[in-house]
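Consider this today:
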Amino acid sequence: MAVGARGRDILTQFLIEAVTLSIIGGLIGIALGVGGSITITLSGGWPMIIEIQSVFLAFGFSAAVGIFFGFYPARKAANLDPIEALRYE
């Protein structure tokens, strides 16, 4: 805001970062989960079933948590007075 950004611009930037990090984190979590399942299955000789609904549920939960906890600080930062925000740093 001190360099001319509007509250909406700050909110948009924080939300884009939150969504991007949530998606990347969700994809990494899916890859680690599937990779771990395959590793355990091959080492134990057990059959493996990965249900796509579980994968979508986990990814959706990851995205929802990331977006929610990205929105709160974004709203707080967008409402800050620029002088107070600079003084806090």
User: Anything to note?
Assistant: The two ends are 14 Å apart (CA to CA). The mean pLDDT is 83.
